[in-house]
Amino acid sequence: VGSEMCIRDRYSELTHAFGKSGVQALLIEASIPRLEEEANRLLWKMTEGRMSLKIETLRPRRGSSPEGETNVSETLDILISDEIGTRPYEMFSGGESFRVDFALRIALSKLLAWRSGAPLPTLFIDEGFGTQDGEGRDGILDVIHAIESDFQQILVITHIDEIKEAFPIRIEVTRNRSGSTFSMQ
After folding, report:
1. N or C: which end of the chain has fewer CB within 10 A?
2. Beta strand pairing call for 153-157 and 122-126
3. What is the pLDDT of residue 105?
């Protein structure tokens, strides 16, 4: 009976360690600050310091437990702030939302590459610049140029001439009745 109890205790410990509140939760909690820091570095550069974000993984539940302890629930809340204050993602313009999304995507790519120990070979940026005013486009271009050394190749797909001109090497695709052709610029 004693060895059976010991095996059950070990099994219980392993179940907890590999369950949702075990190792994976520790990995996520350890990764969030790095993800947040990188996203904010990029967002700061794109918005000249006007926007930032905070990632929260726990939210207090309403009420409290009988013992007086506050219950919390797991969440993934991304709180975005600017000079007006913190407000929901939906309250930001399309251009502002794109910048937040862009910063998070780049930060997440870098985090995953760091965690796996693999290089970041290629970054594809497909459109999205149409939501930006001139200042927004300049901020995004600044970030793209700032992260060039993090990727072996960055491919930007756009129809906006101003964006095209920001890159020395371009593949121009032209579509006609018989199909599409490309040329190197």
Report:
1. N
2. parallel
3. 93
Write the CB contacts of 69 (distance below 8 Å, at least 6 apart in sequence). Answer: none
Is the pTM higher than 0.90? The answer reads no
172 in Cβ contact with 140 (< 8 Å): no
- Strand bridging mode 72-82 / 122-126: unpaired
Q: What pLDDT is attached to residue 6? A: 86
Dmax over CA atoms of the chain, in Å, equals 81
**Which burial class, exposed, middle or buried, applies to 22 when counting CB atoms under 10 A from its CB (0-12, 13-18, 19+)?**
middle
- Residues 22-41: what's their mean pLDDT? 84
DSSP 140: H
Burial state string for 169-179 with b = 16 or more CB within 10 A and e = fewer than 16: eeeeeeeeeee
Structure tokens at 39: 């996203």
- Residue pair 71/64 in contact (Cβ under 8 Å)? The answer is yes
Lowest mean pLDDT among 9-23, 92-106, 164-178: 9-23
Structure confidence by residue, pLDDT tens digits, 53-73: 999 888 888 765 666 566 888
Tell me 181's DSSP state: E
CB-CB neighbours of 55 under 10 Å: 17
